[in-house]
Amino acid sequence: MTLTTLAVLVPLLPFLGAVGGLLLGRTAPGFARPLAVLPTATAFVLAVVVAVRQGSGPATDAATRLTPTGSVPVDLALHLDGFAVLIAVLVGLVATCVQLYSTAYLRHDPRYASYSALVSLFTAAMFLVVYTGDLMVLLVGWEIMGICSYFLVGHYWETEVARAASLKAFLVTKLGDVPFLIGVFALAADAGTFRINGILTAATHGEIAHPTVVGLLLLAGVAGKSAQFPLHTWLPDAMAGPTPVSALIHAATMVAAGIYLVARLLPVFEASTVTLAVLGVLAAVTMIGSALAALAQDDIKRVLAYSTIGQLGYMAAALAVGDRSAAVFHLVSHGAFKALLFLAAGVVIHAAGTNSLAAMSRMGDLGKRVPDAMWTMGIALAALAAIPPFSGFFSKESVLRAAEHAASGHAEGVPSAVGWLVLVAALLTAVLTAGYATRLFLLAFRGRGATAPEAHGREPAAMTVVLWVLAVPTLAFGAVALVPSLLDLPAWLDGNALAPTLVTSILGVGLAVVGILATYGAWQAAATRRGAPLGAVVTAEAAEEEPALTEAAALQTHEQVYGDVAAAQDPADPGRLLLGPLFEPASHGFRLDALYAKLFVRPVLAASGLVRFLDREVVETYVRGAGGLPRLLGALVRRTQTGNVQTYISVLLAGSVILAVLVAVGA
Amino acid sequence: MSDALEVILRLLAVLVAFLVLPLVVGQTEHKVMAHMQGRLGPMYAGGFHGWAQLVADGVKFAQKEDVVPADADRKIFQLAPAVALLPYLLVLIAIPIGPGGLVGQDIDAGLFFVLAVMGVGVLGSLMAGWASANKFSLLGGLRSAAQLMSYELPMLLAAASVAMAAGTLSLPGIVDAYAWWWTPWQLIGAVVFFTAGLAELQRPPFDMPVADSEIIFGAYTEYTGMRFALFLLAEYAGIVVLCGLTTVLFLGGWHGPWSDSLGWLWTLLKTAALAFVVIWLRVTYPRLREDQLQRFAWTVLIPLALTQIALTGVVKVVIS
Amino acid sequence: MHLAYPAVLAALLFSVGLYGVLARRNAILVLMSVELMLNAVNLNLVAFDVWLRDTLHAGQALTLFVIVVAAAEIGIGLAIVLLVYRNRGSSDVDRLTDLAEHGPHDPHDPQGEGDGPSAPEEKAEAAA
Amino acid sequence: MNVAAAHPGFLSPTGVEIVFVLVGVATLAAAVVSVTTKQLVHAALWLVVALGGVAVEYLLLTAEFIAWVQVLIYVGSVVVLVLFGLMLTKAPIGRSPDADSGNRIAALAVAVAAAGTLVWVVVDAFRSTWIDVDGAPQGSTKVTGEILFRHWVLPFEALSVLLLAALVGAIVLSRKQSRQQPGER
């Protein structure tokens, strides 16, 4: 098979799997699992084959036109280069792991068939986004992902939280997508084509007439999809979906799409300094804010969600300083360890029967009950905190190096101020990242207290095996990628050097160690308060004695038991000690949602109330008034409707006689 | 002038036939039934073989008081026998007896005329039944009307088959076109026609509308004297007409040895034989129930008649 | 023969039938009057056919067709009338006013269900 | 019409014309009685007279076949059906006080107006038109059969389908009522 055929098969297989799953899911439930796992796994293998064949060679392009589409043609185009094939491998790996994991994690779920089909569709859409060479086709995949995320986040639609979260995810991302669509059209109108290659050629030759406007419009969509400030608020709430979905969305697919798009279209953004500056500021704000918020979260998945936002900020920062290799490098390594983190968190939640860190910190032997999760999560947290041998260290160092490069004014077209801003923010975030990673680990696995409920027995093998599979790239990818004889990553990408430099390494690792030590200290300082029983934390006892068996049940009772989705009144929280007065706002995402509610939601509601009033009271009155005369006439005419057929015929015939006479006389 | 004279003479002859033949049939019925059933009563009047029985009956009818029920619709009540009788007189005009214009009036669409006019006779039954102000009469009238409507269809279809075979609607024309093998060819049609005709005349075994053990005497319950005699006369006239028609249509009419000179005799002989069959059937078969009557018409006679038409059509195409 | 004779006779017959259709209350009598009107038309058709000596004899053919249609019409019409009579105990045309438009404030049977207070009794009578 | 000048006037009628007018008057009178009498069954019987009169008029117009069809279908079947209907709907013996509906006056006005208009128009148009009825008969069975099955076969077949539909329809209508009210038979 040719490379093109293989590449076409990659998105097609999960798509067919999704169609099959949706069609057969109800009638033949036995096929749901094979239909979910096999196409995705095959697509992963094919993606690897594509990646190996493509390698570091020149980009492969193929296109076919289905039908003429007016002045700006739309092609089914394929564009394979190092970026695309690398991310496709990541997507395939994570999706396969998620599907495998889901077979065990959702084994009791009645809607598993539709769930797995939607995950397959999601995967197919992401493959499409990655491989396509046409902006319009990319948009198709982009929107399919939006829809799928809506359905998947709302998978537990019986719970109020999930319904609200799915709606929020959909609306907020669409809020970004509208300007994004306009931006795409503006870009295509300027470049005269939807083909990305053509656009890039136009951008490098300066033929884009309005680079700033286009760039900012596109950035809105990117911010929505990749959860950058100020459109990031949907992501923490999206934790209401099943944990594997969170892993999929956060690690490889949805949020990565935004970063990937900017990476593909970087020349367009580079054409405008303003855009880069805006991107840098957004990235900086996102990084620091999300790291602070992560330090204050009680829900283990929300901690991870904010960390995702922060890591996406890193990638955005790398893009802001014009180094897409670093961004994609971090994207890939982050994808691996973040998927691992979520899936391990799923195991932990499964074992603990809750997703509250405060509750976990009062369970004595959680770490011993799920050793696989503890070890793999430890590895992944170390990667997140950028501790040297792990992959996260290398990728984050490449970002820092790029920022330093720009700060020192060596990057073309990037103001050094942006570089400095990004560098400082990234270093600050490194401290906080290490801090919340440590806090998460300590609270989850170093708890002390009553034995955790033994309701579940051992975790299924499918779940633990997946964890160790993902632990491999988390451990080794960074180092392996940079050894030229093994996997010459820079050659696959733009060719920029990605290896860590001494200064940034020392700086980054040092700051991380500072964060770890500070958190550990705070944790030790709060040791005495850790004796407080769970009753001090919860506001109400769980309704049932039995711990929650499924994530849906945990979600349902969470608010009732802990009083708040985001935070618990846990005095032993080291984050509380570290953040001080900042803790309360940070745990609620700096009250951004409340601000939005005040700024946007309330005026919209008021306006709709006004419109309703105008329609109901004012317009309706006119309509009613206009109806009066016809009604009067109708009442008059109604009197002639006696129901007596003979009267009708009499009148009819009298009329025709008169007509006949008139005609006869007239003639 | 001779034209008018000829017409008057023909009509007179028809009238005479109309007055004589039904009486002959009636007398025959008395005798035949008496012999078949071993009855002695009709054998006494007048001495030899009870020859004056019919005369005695006539005298009896003439003597009876003509009663009209108090609640009855007088005019219609009185008019009904005439309406029942007249069509048969009209029909008789069109039936040919012998070759060479030995017919009351050669009508172009004779067959059609005969069937159409016979259909009018039903009005007499209806009028009589309704005007009597008697529920048995009304039921009988409705029943006989329903029966006549049902059996009209197979009769028409059977007649149509013959018309197809002969290629004309004129009764003399049909007899002219006759050949001996028509009788086996049109056998089904003949049976259907004859049976349906019997039913139209409400002769046993199709006499449910006037069955005395069921609804007294149907539409004629309230009639006495001469008016009743007229109804009886209509029935016997009907037998004559039916037998004559069957003879003309299916049995070749005047065809036979020496048909040039003795044609009229053949016709009369065949008619008489059929009349005998009619009487014979009366004493042989039990009465059909009302629903059996209708079912017989719709599920037996009509399909048979349609079969006959198909057969006729096929043979006609084959031999042409 | 003058064409005026059959034509005038047809016109008068038609008018008589028209009067019957409009003035008769019993539905069966209305149907009878319709037959009269159809006959008037048939008479016209035949007269004009004979006058024109049409080689296709369209007038006579059409007359036959009209007669056939009239027979079908009377069959169906009577079936309907009998059904109405059995359901309501009456075949009076001017009492079949279910389609009458009652005023908005008219309390009289808003569904247009019955045709007067005596209808149920008559129905019961008919059923008996 | 080339014979227009040759034909006799209205004041010297031919024998056929005299018979036609006489029968026509009888027909019209029967029709008038039929639509005005208060005795329902009498109305139907007068209708028989009127229809028979029309049949005779057909004969006078040399349309023989149609005349017999008229007798067979109208007198033999349609009127019988009508009588059936009248008897099944309990037509009383004697006068029905409510045989006519309320709009007699309007009906009379419309009918008279229609009659006046039609007669005026017809007389105006065909005052001097002459039908030649002495030639070959226009409606013999042979002629009618030939045109019917040579030129009018398709309408004829369509009509047979219509009749079948009417038959089925009548059966369906009758069956329905017997199923709804099984006690009533």
UniProtKB/TrEMBL annotation, chain A:
Residue spans crossing the bilayer: 6-24, 36-56, 76-100, 112-131, 137-157, 169-188, 208-224, 245-263, 275-296, 303-321, 327-352, 373-394, 418-445, 465-487, 499-523, 648-666
Residue span(s) of domain NADH-Ubiquinone oxidoreductase (complex I) chain 5 N-terminal: 68-115
GO molecular function: NADH dehydrogenase (ubiquinone) activity; NADH dehydrogenase activity
Signal peptide positions (record): none
Domain NADH:quinone oxidoreductase/Mrp antiporter transmembrane: 133-403
Subcellular location: Endomembrane system; Membrane
Topology of this chain in the membrane: Multi-pass membrane protein
Single GO BP term: electron transport coupled proton transport
InterPro entries: NADHpl_OxRdtase_5_subgr, ND/Mrp_TM, NU5C-like, Proton_antipo_N
Coiled coil region boundaries: none
Key words, A-Z: Membrane, Transmembrane, Transmembrane helix
Superkingdom of the organism of origin: Bacteria
Family matches, as Pfam families: Proton_antipo_M (PF00361), Proton_antipo_N (PF00662)
Descriptive protein name: NADH dehydrogenase subunit L
Lineage, top ranks: Bacteria, Bacillati, Actinomycetota, Actinomycetes, Kitasatosporales
Automatic annotation (TrEMBL), chain B:
Keyword NAD: yes
GO biological process, alphabetically ordered: aerobic respiration
Assembly description: NDH-1 is composed of 14 different subunits. Subunits NuoA, H, J, K, L, M, N constitute the membrane sector of the complex.
Enzyme class, UniProt record, top EC level: translocase
Source species of the chain: Actinacidiphila glaucinigra
UniProt protein name: NADH-quinone oxidoreductase subunit H
Membrane topology type: Multi-pass membrane protein
Cellular component per GO, a single term: plasma membrane
UniProt entry tagged with the keyword Ubl conjugation: no
Family from the record: Belongs to the complex I subunit 1 family.
Source domain of life: Bacteria
Function field: NDH-1 shuttles electrons from NADH, via FMN and iron-sulfur (Fe-S) centers, to quinones in the respiratory chain. The immediate electron acceptor for the enzyme in this species is believed to be ubiquinone. Couples the redox reaction to proton translocation (for every two electrons transferred, four hydrogen ions are translocated across the cytoplasmic membrane), and thus conserves the redox energy in a proton gradient. This subunit may bind ubiquinone.
Classification via InterPro entries: NADH_UbQ_OxRdtase_su1/FPO
Annotated TM spans: 7-26, 79-97, 109-132, 153-174, 228-251, 263-284, 296-319
Protein's cellular compartments: Cell membrane; Membrane
One Pfam entry name: NADHdh
Catalytic activity from the UniProt record: a quinone + NADH + 5 H(+)(in) = a quinol + NAD(+) + 4 H(+)(out)
Automatic annotation (TrEMBL), chain C:
Gene3D superfamilies in alphabetical order: 1.10.287.3510
EC number: 7.1.1.-
GO-annotated cellular components: NADH dehydrogenase complex; plasma membrane
Region (Disordered): 95-128
Membrane topology: Multi-pass membrane protein
Protein keywords: Cell membrane, Membrane, NAD, Quinone, Translocase, Transmembrane, Transmembrane helix, Transport
Catalysed transformations (reactions): a quinone + NADH + 5 H(+)(in) = a quinol + NAD(+) + 4 H(+)(out)
GO biological process: ATP synthesis coupled electron transport
Residues passing through the membrane, by range: 61-85
UniProt xrefs under Pfam families: Oxidored_q2 (PF00420)
Cellular compartment(s): Cell membrane; Membrane
MF (Gene Ontology): NADH dehydrogenase (quinone) (non-electrogenic) activity; quinone binding
Biased composition (Basic and acidic residues): 95-111
HAMAP family hit by this protein: NDH1_NuoK (MF_01456)
Role this protein plays: NDH-1 shuttles electrons from NADH, via FMN and iron-sulfur (Fe-S) centers, to quinones in the respiratory chain. The immediate electron acceptor for the enzyme in this species is believed to be a menaquinone. Couples the redox reaction to proton translocation (for every two electrons transferred, four hydrogen ions are translocated across the cytoplasmic membrane), and thus conserves the redox energy in a proton gradient.
Family: Belongs to the complex I subunit 4L family.
Quaternary structure and interacting proteins, as annotated: NDH-1 is composed of 14 different subunits. Subunits NuoA, H, J, K, L, M, N constitute the membrane sector of the complex.
NCBIfam families to which the protein is assigned, alphabetical: PRK05715.1-2 (NF004320), PRK05715.1-5 (NF004323)
Protein known as: NADH-quinone oxidoreductase subunit K
UniProtKB/TrEMBL annotation, chain D:
Localization, UniProt: Cell membrane
Main location, first listed in the record: membrane
Annotated Gene3D superfamilies: NADH-ubiquinone/plastoquinone oxidoreductase chain 6, subunit NuoJ
UniProt xrefs under Pfam families: Oxidored_q3
Keywords tagged on the record: Cell membrane, Membrane, NAD, Quinone, Transmembrane, Transmembrane helix
GO molecular function terms attached to this record: NADH dehydrogenase (ubiquinone) activity; quinone binding
EC number(s) stated in the UniProt entry for this protein: 7.1.1.-
GO CC term, one of those recorded: plasma membrane
Catalytic activity: a quinone + NADH + 5 H(+)(in) = a quinol + NAD(+) + 4 H(+)(out)
Residue intervals passing through the bilayer: 18-36, 43-61, 67-93, 105-123, 152-173
Protein's membrane topology: Multi-pass membrane protein
InterPro entries per record: NADH_UbQ/plastoQ_OxRdtase_su6, Nuo/plastoQ_OxRdtase_6_NuoJ
Top-level taxon of origin: Bacteria
Function: NDH-1 shuttles electrons from NADH, via FMN and iron-sulfur (Fe-S) centers, to quinones in the respiratory chain. Couples the redox reaction to proton translocation (for every two electrons transferred, four hydrogen ions are translocated across the cytoplasmic membrane), and thus conserves the redox energy in a proton gradient.
Family: Belongs to the complex I subunit 6 family.
PANTHER family hit by this protein: NADH-UBIQUINONE OXIDOREDUCTASE CHAIN 6
Protein name: NADH-quinone oxidoreductase subunit J
UniProt lineage: Bacteria, Bacillati, Actinomycetota, Actinomycetes, Kitasatosporales
